[in-house]
Amino acid sequence: PLGAGPVEADGWLARTLEAFPEQPLGRRFLIRPTHLVPRRVFGRIVLTLDAGIAFGSGEHASTQGCLLALEAVLRNRRPRRLLDLGTGSGILAMAAAKTLRRPVLATDIEPWSVRVTEQNARLNGIPRLVRARLADGWRHRAVRDARPYDLVFANILARPLCAMARSLAQGLAPGGTAILAGLLTR
Asked: Among the four residues 69, 128, 133, 186, which has the most C-beta atoms within 10 Å?
């Protein structure tokens, strides 16, 4: 039999906040959740955001790998035209925008991801650098019109990555870099 009744809070909120601490990633980045008091950090690019309804809090290995790959790309060159396909929370777009001080087109097929990306860009003081758009990959005019890209992030699932491989190749500038994640070994 089912029943309903009051349940003690038991500190679930404190446990949840403890589970999302500040995360240094690589040599450049620090992901800081909003529940922590902001403090000045030297030598790192701080990305302030929370785990939420849009993918990309920095806790997942695919997001971490993309940030590390961005660091590696930046050792050799400074891309100018930037795209984040399937931006989720906007974490990769924000990392690129803050590091390079260049505009990034950040697209997603989910309206709430576009809203979350816009909110996160404002929170991080870069609303003019991160342009969030509701778009289905390379089909959207804004994505096609801004080609070719020097750097493209796509931290999405394997099937969409495979389906857009040709468009991705056509959308990259000569010598451009695609940072892809979300592929599964199976």
From this structure: 69
